[in-house]
Prior knowledge:
The chain has 332 residues and is α/β, with parallel strands linked by helices. Helices cover 24% and strands 28% of the residues. Strands 3, 4, 5, 6, 7, 14 and 15 form a seven-stranded mixed sheet that branches. The protein has a six-stranded parallel sheet with strand order 10-9-8-11-12-13, with helices on both faces. Bound molecules: NADPH dihydro-nicotinamide-adenine-dinucleotide phosphate (NDP).
Amino acid sequence: MTTEQIVLASRPKGLPVSDNFRMQQFELPAIKAGEVLLKGLYYSVDPYMRGRMNDAKSYTPPFEIDKPLNGSVIGKVAESNSDNFKTGDAVVGHFPWQKDFIATEKELTKIDTNLAPASYYLGILGMTGLTAYFGLMHIGKPKAGETVVVSGAAGAVGIVVGQIAKIQGCHVVGIAGSDEKTKLLTTEFGFDEAINYNTTADMNKAIAAACPKGVDVYFDNVGGEISDAVIKNIAFHARIPLCGQISLYNSTEIPMGPRLQPMLLTRSVLMQGFIISNFQARFPEGIQQLAQWLKDDKLKFTETIEHGFENLPQALLGLFSGENTGKMIVEI
Length: 332
Ligand code: NDP
């Protein structure tokens, strides 16, 4: 059968543009024993994909020119040559940006759509929820009464980090890019305070005012000047889970900032980078906890859903201009 795919046409310099992507037709072979044919339903776009568009060595290999991009996808089994998957099953896995694709059994995980909507397995019950859970709980180690600051607070990871910190009894401050987002964080998601970094002239002062006892845990999703301002307010023995640096992903030169090491040294601060796959062996524990909190109404989630396979590149680019609240997803 013929299907459609989106390939990397060229490598971007700075912010990607639509010409870096190309949609083309692709001929799928017949499925073999143990394989299934899947129809894509929901496709995840994630900031780390920007790094994979560069030809640079990293923790995941770069996307190849003229080959489809790939990422987390929720699919429905359309045809099966497997005893373990039947037509109609909903599954999640790492697949190419194709409308239809073939997968082997071991590449598929069934999802329980009675527990949560299918798309949640790309967000709160998927990679971004697990990132929030393990980064905060195992590196941030928040204690009741402490102050937790999270940047990128209205995004897929940040919105979960803030709520988990509230469950732990912390004072939670979110940083996000619009008044609409900061209002949502405090009114709908239980954050104590939220700061709009786009309209705040002095971030250092604003963070000091929101965190009078200093910042005990800083969950860093964005890096750059926002993080410089938070770290100026860091408390003694603070922990900084270093999760993302989205403000720097499109930089064409090595960005310079204040030297932070003296501050970390003199305040005995722990800053630890992590990649969610470091915690792979413990994913079942994380999913179980997140699902339980969802069931108990202690956690809420939100998504920005774009429609149409051809809009995958635009949705990815939208992450860099803050077009999403919660998880950015493309529904086919
Ligand atoms: P988000 O859903 O948070 O989407 C990205 C958000 O980043 C945008 O909505 C925008 O919100 C904000 N943003 C974009 N550009 C800038 C900028 N220049 N300065 C400040 N904020 C900016 O993405 P995720 O929740 O999926 O990911 C959040 C971070 O976590 C990313 O850096 C990502 O790479 C990282 N990550 C790391 C993982 C790991 O294993 N370490 C796993 C998953 C994610 P706003 O409107 O507020 O600006």
